[in-house]
Amino acid sequence: MIADVLADATARMDRAVEAAKEDFATVRTGRANPQLFQRILVDYYGTPTPLQQLASLANPEARTLIVTPYDKSALKAIEDAIREMPNLGANPTNDGNIVRITMPELTQERRKEFVKIVRTKGEDAKVRLRGIRRQVKDDLDALRDEIGEDDIVRGEKELDAITKAHVDKIDEALKHKEAELLEV
Question: Ribosome recycling factor domain spans which residues (predicted)?
């Protein structure tokens, strides 16, 4: 019974860590990366539609990204959605067939701002992990009547170890992203 609760906790924490890594990927570095455009919603015939459903993304050069829409009538809407994306600073150009995005160089000051954003995202991810831990601890406490006190204490220690391992994974991803951001 405790093993099932801990397995569920591990799976939920794994998903939280993956979500944090995906969230880190949306913060731009000096290079153009298709993951930066993962959360862009384009107003396509009045419906907010993810960019990946409307176009293919190619990365021919380090700072250039090419968006090829499946429907040429969506070009202007895609261009506007990219231009309005906060923290991107990209200025897309449209040649009638594709949207070409050249990412500007990041200044040192802007890089430090992005590091702060990533650290905030990392803290949010850790808060989610602690929330999962709290819920699982409540689930373990609910089992107190059915299972012995020693087993509950052992389960809580395992839960703490699982939580620490997942927090360490987030810290490692955060450290990697910070190094990537500060790399010139």
Answer: 21-182
